Amino acid sequence: MKRNIIILLASVLLLSSCKDLLEPAIENNRDLNPDDFTANDARFPFGVLLNGYNRIPTNGWSFNDVATDDAVTNDQTNGFLKMANGQWAANNNPLNQWQNCYAAIQYLNIMLRDVDSVQWASDAATSKLFGMRVKGEAYGLRALFFYHLLQAHAGVGESGQLMGVPLMLDVQNPNTDFNQPRASFENCMKQIYSDLDKADALLPLDYENITNTANPVPAKYGAISKEQYDRVFGTLFRGLLTGRIAKAIRSKAALLAASPAFSTGSSTTWADAANYAGEVLTLKGGVGALAPKGLTWFSDGAEISGLADGANPPEILWRNNYGDNRDLEQANYPPTLFGNGRINPTQNLVDAFPMLNGYPISDAASGYVASNPYNNRDPRLKQFILVNGGTAGPNATVINTAADGATNDGLNKVETSTRTGYYLRKLLRQDVNLNPNSANNQRHYKPHIRYTELFLNYAEAANEAWGPMGTGSNAFSAYDVIKAIRKRAGIGTTNNDAYLETAKASKEQMRELIHNERRLELCFEGFRFWDLRRWKAPLTETAKGVSISNNIPTIIDVESRQFQPFMIYGPIPYLEILKFGALEQNQGWR
User: Fold this and answer.
1) pTM over 0.85, yes/no
2) SUPFAM superfamilies, from UniProt (predicted)?
3) In terms of CATH architecture, what is 9-54+96-267+571-578?
């Protein structure tokens, strides 16, 4: 039976308007196989595609920083805490993406199989455009899920080869042979690039209406009217995957593949990774387009409340839905502000913030005074971390984290107190009130991709490929990017950032600086654990804190890290290894 589905504009509006684009309604439940498109419901095929969007791993905050040297938690049931304390195993893996990603890929494969047999609109030209768009989205999303699978599960197998994951590219059914071997890492990367190329070719750069003759219908869509184009690719669909987003996913995947942990099994070079990031940044406007308010994307209430459905501020390339809530604040405000103080930044991370003059605190030229450790520091320190004497909450309450403090905000006072002498400030809206007598919610969203991430991707890859000042075929260097990021942060502005000027003469020193800037700019956004592993950097640095008594700070050990060297690669899930003999486990895991 030919699968004909007539989709009307009203159906499109139903899917994409209201509170925000892509906010899922009640899940479609059917007495049908998931690959059955014969139901006479225009929303069903879109629902299959939206299942992929709803499974994007970056939805929600994982705070895997708790498994690194950047943070600990006072929640003793936290899976990342247990992982860092030696309980990480193939059958106990908080970072597991296997089931989620392969479930999403199955739905996307269904779309790719059946998309051309669906009549998306009564008008043939419009129906063809819808088919192109849906197919492009499915290819791009499939590439994204394979990237997340590689990040979580690729590694050196028992054979000694760098392995990826099984490339499931067809719809699975009860007759499918599920006992498939892992593809090589290189072949997985080739598949990701192939899917992204197809997505880029099918999708518009952005979802925008055709406004005038200076903004014509792209030639790849043929001779269609403005109305037809806007109906399929117009502003109504902001928030869905675009050509620009596909280019950014390529940058993320290439950075992973070029990194030390994966480069031996990949033909992707540092120059490739730099050029992929550079392409996106050039479209944005280069280094001069670094968003001036990029540090306050999570706390700028006016900017956030003014977001139209699907629209992004300058710092954000792609985000999830916004929602009005107080969940992050409830979890992470200190106890006197009625919070649970869950994520506690470490002294290790605090020490990574330079002085206001740009020098690391370990440098003799920095002017750092250990007895007054938060004075004249990088402004990002107090923007991201609540230090002793800092303020928080709607009334700018002064928070005392000292061990001899008089409130429960002090070090280890109660179960919800800090274990390190610090509380989280980044990501939290300080205009949220948790007082039960006057509690309120505020709008939050989570980025899937920030432009600052792409700038840092470029800086890292360009420095490795061409050195601090090299540009390849691009118009800017790693040095240019880091200078702009540090200037935005407000450091080194009085001395022309003398430390950076010294670093630009050395790839090794610039590498260290870029890694540190990435640590600071992206802290608590789920990057640190993956970065340490792809760099082959030590995972076992003890998490430290500060105990302040009589106004004298003393550095303390808070939590050790129990990782083995082979854990730079994650495991294949234990149950998958038991079920399928063709699957090869990564070395060291059982």
Assistant:
1) yes
2) TPR-like
3) Alpha Horseshoe (1.25)
